[in-house]
Amino acid sequence: MEKQRLDKIIASTGKWSRREVKNLVRQGRVLVDGLPARTAEEKVDPETVDITVNGEELTYRRYTWIMLNKPAGYLSATEDGRGKTVLDLLPQELRRQGLFPVGRLDKDTEGLLLLTNEGGLAHDLLSPRHHVDKVYYTRVAGRLTEEDCRVFAEGMLLDDGLACQPAGLEILSAGEESEAYVTLREGKFHQVKRMLAQRGKPVLYLERVRMGNLLLDPVLPRGDFRFLTVEELEMLKNS
Ligand code: URA
Predict the structure, then answer these.
(1) Which end of the chain is more exposed for a tag (fewer CB within 10 A), N or C?
(2) Cβ of 138 less than 6 Å from ligand 1
(3) Hey, which residues are catalytic here?
(4) Are 58 and 10 in contact (CB under 8 A)?
(5) How confident is the prediction along the chain (239 residues), in pLDDT tens digits per residue?
(6) What domains appear along the chain, each with residue ranges and CATH number?
(7) Atom of ligand 1 nearest to the CA of 108
(8) Among protein residues, the one whose CA lies closest to atom 7 of ligand 1
(9) Spatial distance between the Cα atoms of 134 and 167, rounded to a whole number of angstroms
(10) d(CA 51, CA 35)
């Protein structure tokens, strides 16, 4: 792989800014193949050298994969002149890496959103041919019924002409308001909301909790992010 500046490589982990890396190098706390780095600008091949920062070995990844627990109020976009985007929830160093959201959640939808700069795998995950299940927790107005589950499973034809693939509806509670998990293999614009609205049960709250085999980390606070582990990335590839 092409050589890159040490500060860029270390900052790409999102744990330190380039300025912090400079200080760490000055303090002799950055080692390259066991020897203190001389400057933060030094160029090395991140795939062939061992880098340690504060005694911690750095695992370099060519691509960045991030799990974000999206809060309401943020657009799933990289740029928006008017509103806040999910990229605003990341530190500057990560924003520089060309990350984009893997698919979209509506502005008011919360939960699991992946961000990456690896176009190929992101594309595969979104392609309907790959059948990656997306699971949403929802709270709706009105009583969900077994009939709703049956209609979802058959594949709905929406009044606006959208033919939906068979989808899962698992009722968690039913009353004046109901709760359920909805499982989709596709991701058309406002799809969960449109399907439930057609059943006369408008969505009050929507949160994505799973994509393929990857669950939203239950201890990741809303608005926070973390890197995917190697195992999680493998799991996604096998989803
Ligand atoms: N379906 C919706 O209606 N909204 C989302 O954000 C995701 C799926």
Answers:
(1) N
(2) no
(3) 106
(4) yes
(5) 789 999 989 988 878 888 999 999 999 999 999 999 999 999 999 989 999 999 999 988 889 999 999 999 999 998 877 789 999 999 888 888 899 999 999 999 999 999 999 998 888 888 877 778 999 999 999 999 999 999 999 999 999 999 999 999 999 999 999 999 999 999 899 999 999 999 999 999 999 999 999 999 999 999 999 999 888 988 888 87
(6) 4-57 (3.10.290.10), 65-128+218-238 (3.30.70.580), 133-211 (3.30.70.1560)
(7) 6
(8) 105
(9) 10
(10) 9
DSSP, collapsed to helix, strand or coil, labels residue 150 as helix
Choice from 75, 102, 109 to test ligand 1 binding pocket (greatest atom count within 8 A of CB): 109
> Which of ligand 1's atoms lies nearest the C-alpha of 184?
8
What's the gap in Å between 191 CA and the centre of ligand 1?
5
Task: Find out whether the beta carbon of 109 lies less than 6 Å from any atom of ligand 1.
Answer: yes
**Cβ–Cβ < 8 Å for 112, 216:** yes
> Which pLDDT score, from 0 to 100, does residue 17 have?
86
Query: Tokens standing for 77?
Result: 């976009």
Question: How many angstroms separate the CA atoms of 101 and 86, rounded?
Answer: 8
Type and span of the H or E element at 174? none
Does any ligand 1 atom lie closer than 6 A to the CB of residue 190? Answer: yes
